[in-house]
Amino acid sequence: MPERDPLAADRRETYLHHESETAPQHFTTRTADRQAAFFLPHLRPRMRLLDCGCGPGTITLGLAEVVAPGEAVGIDIIEGQLAQARQEASSRGLTNARFKAASVYALPFDDESFDAVFSNAVLGHLGDPAAALAEMKRVLRPGGVVGIRNIDIDGQIYVPETTLQRKFRDLYKQMLAVNGGNAQIGRHHKALLRETGFDVVRASAMYEVYSSVEAVRHWGMVISGLWAEASVVELVTRNEFASHAEMQALSQDWRDWSEHPDAFFADAWFEAVGRRPGHASTA
Ligand SMILES: C[S@@+](CC[C@H](N)C(=O)[O-])C[C@H]1O[C@@H](n2cnc3c(N)ncnc32)[C@H](O)[C@@H]1O
Questions:
Q1: Residue 135 falls inside a structural domain
Q2: Which residue in 5, 6, 182, 239 is deepest, having the highest Cβ count within 10 Å?
Q3: How far, in Å, CA of 193 to CA of 211, rounded?
Q4: Helix 244-258 / helix 163-178 crossing angle, nearest 10 deg
Q5: pTM value?
Q6: What domain range includes position 141?
């Protein structure tokens, strides 16, 4: 009998990278110091923090160190990612982080049970980011803070830029849109927070830069790996966004780009902090 998926009812879309091997490998390069820098000034020791869509948990673990002896809880819909996160917590000797399988649409936590909620690179994959934010707000205490961070693909800068890279941007938008997701969600942060009843504390943006030979090769590997994923090939060809031959050309184009002596990539990330209205906050 096929294994029952306990989260089936709470998945509203098929996460693009659900079968990927290269994407989670890339996520393990992320840290709280870099990817959550905008949110750190709002965190204090002894807070209880939730990381929604934590992936392999490297950011969550950095956040756990900041709120210690408080607790950081990471949730994700992919059990394999959580297993990786637990293993990393134990190898770092961190005892105030725990990880749980859950969907951001149905958080298995009481109302007002967290001081801070964080989410990196998740809302753009969702068909209903407002419902996810409303759920984050439900579990936040009044005065508690939410920190969200997402790309806006039109802010990406590739040097040298090829026609195929421009094609990649269009394809990525189309792939996310199949699920109702939005590769340009970063620019909508303020509106999303306001419309879900948060007070907007701050909205900002920054570039993540890939410039060294190693960094550029790493990014080339991540993107050419994307085009080799069976589920991505199936999604793109079934919807006739591109042919098999075009996808192979794209994959080769990324490998060629990553060997170019001038290759440079700047990835535009948008960040925002909101506060749940209510009594005075300590954040
Ligand atoms: C791009 S990854 C980001 C992972 C991590 N936040 C990071 O920045 O490294 C997106 C993550 O969101 C998770 N995800 C997608 N849909 C979700 C949902 N409905 N509820 C919870 N997690 C979800 C995926 O499984 C994946 O681990």
A1: yes
A2: 182
A3: 33
A4: 120
A5: 0.94
A6: 8-275
